């Protein structure tokens, strides 16, 4: 009896492997949960090893993306894949685990040389309003549906440039995000002395509402352009360290 059960399980496993290996990746858009802001285009390969030519996520265009399923995890009832996503000249490597009930886990992810311009529309800004590159390392991310529930991220931004009422080279920045229960705190600051400003602050982000509140302090360095340094006085009173308060909030797409 036990031997017969073992043979049955092996047979079922072999059938599942064969089915996934032969199922075309073009079925993924029909299998993915419907979301008006998500579009998967130009799929090729198989569900086991495939490629998506372009991902439209709200106002952002990403891709291509390639993935490989981890065969050993299928017998445990989960989809576990290694994914590479290109964002223009940058890329993201991640491991993604999909569990029953719509829970998505990303145990680890790394991003390198990611251009910032494609993300400007997320904050309702034109793509040419921001330039620079970013890199990150993420750990233990969890999503339910399309809402980020928890995780930790270390972020670096290099050569940030804003084109808002003129071109402003702002330098390099670092940040750390950590959160639970869909509420996150992001701490950030400038790095080095190249940028025109000293900056330090934090962002509170409520993922379910997609709203953020930023509170920071900013001060001009000696080599800051006079027009930028002079504009800071309209932010309020300086503190003892010569920094001005900055507070604002908004909603991401």
TrEMBL record:
<dbReference type="InterPro" id="IPR022792">
    <property type="entry name" value="T2SS_protein-GspN"/>
</dbReference>
<keyword id="KW-0813">Transport</keyword>
<keyword id="KW-0812">Transmembrane</keyword>
<dbReference type="Pfam" id="PF01203">
    <property type="entry name" value="T2SSN"/>
</dbReference>
<keyword id="KW-0997">Cell inner membrane</keyword>
<dbReference type="GO" id="GO:0005886">
    <property type="term" value="C:plasma membrane"/>
</dbReference>
<dbReference type="GO" id="GO:0015627">
    <property type="term" value="C:type II protein secretion system complex"/>
</dbReference>
<comment type="similarity">
    <text>Belongs to the GSP N family.</text>
</comment>
<keyword id="KW-1003">Cell membrane</keyword>
<keyword id="KW-0653">Protein transport</keyword>
<keyword id="KW-0472">Membrane</keyword>
<dbReference type="GO" id="GO:0015628">
    <property type="term" value="P:protein secretion by the type II secretion system"/>
</dbReference>
<protein>
    <recommendedName>
        <fullName>Type II secretion system protein N</fullName>
    </recommendedName>
</protein>
